[in-house]
Design goal:
GO terms for molecular function: ATP binding; DNA binding; DNA clamp loader activity. It is a single chain. This protein is mostly helical. Helix content is about 65%, strand content about 5%. The relative contact order is 0.06.
């Protein structure tokens, strides 16, 4: 097995992988399994070399390539593999296991803290356990507030207040309150944007207003990703909802 911490240049394929795949046990006819984690980080030269190794030693070895972006795997390798896509785990799939781990480790976790861990984990078991462990080490009790404080995500109560401002307050008042909230709690604008988007998903909005909000939020996310001012983009976030409110009031039935 080779993972992200190992070298994955062409020399590794030519030496380590080829040598391992080419050897056979004297008293066993079993097939070897070679697992390459984060194979998309391999150079193109290494992937082309791996293609030849796969072709040559297919009788006594099987290769498992694990990657995040299949587009970074060269077509020659993709055509020689059967692709499986694994979606994030559903809540019911991780719930019992997390409860079992929390019980074994004597973690004092509340029901709202448990829901917060699952929500922020997003179906990623490793992320869920990291959040649980970090919160347990930082606080005596794993509750909702402590989970959000430990991960740096906006508290649900703060997001309820912010979304209420976006839909009811004037532009000046909303900007002032949002900037004060960000300054007081240290929230990243990208995190606020993601939570506002999730809130908008749950609202019953006219199609034209919903499309406008989604389009503008996408542009805002792009600007944040390119390194623009977070304060400026937070003000832009407020202006998006002020404009959406005007769209709804001018044409509520569209």
């Amino acid at each position: 097995e080779l993972n992200a911490s190992d070298d994955r240049g062409i020399s590794v394929v030519r030496d380590q992988i080829k040598e391992f795949a080419g050897t056979k046990k004297l008293f066993s006819s079993g097939i070897k399994l070679i697992i390459l984690d984060e194979a998309d980080a391999m150079t193109n030269d290494a992937q082309f070399a791996l293609r030849r190794v796969i072709e040559k030693y297919t009788k006594n070895a099987r290769f498992c390539l694990i990657c995040n972006y299949v587009s970074k795997i060269i077509p020659a390798l993709q055509s020689r593999c059967t692709r499986f896509r694994f979606s994030p785990l559903a809540e019911h799939q991780v719930k019992d296991r997390v409860e079992h781990i929390a019980k074994l480790e004597n973690v004092d976790i509340t029901p709202d803290g448990f829901r917060a861990v699952l929500r922020l984990g997003g179906g990623d078991m490793r992320r869920i356990l990291n959040i649980l462990q970090a919160t347990n080490m930082a606080h005596d009790v794993v509750n909702e507030t402590n989970v959000y404080l430990c991960t740096g995500n906006p508290l649900p109560s703060d997001m309820v207040a912010m979304c209420n401002w976006l839909w009811t307050e004037s532009f000046e008042a909303c900007v002032r309150q949002c900037l004060n909230l960000q300054k007081l709690k240290g929230y990243a604008t990208m995190d606020l944007l993601q939570q506002v988007y999730l809130n908008a998903n749950e609202l019953e909005l006219p199609p034209h207003a919903r499309m406008y909000i989604y389009d503008q939020l996408a542009h805002l996310e792009h600007r944040l990703a390119t390194g623009t001012s977070e304060t400026l983009q937070l003000i832009s976030l407020v202006s998006i909802f002020i404009a959406a409110r005007k769209l709804i009031s001018d044409n509520p039935s569209s």
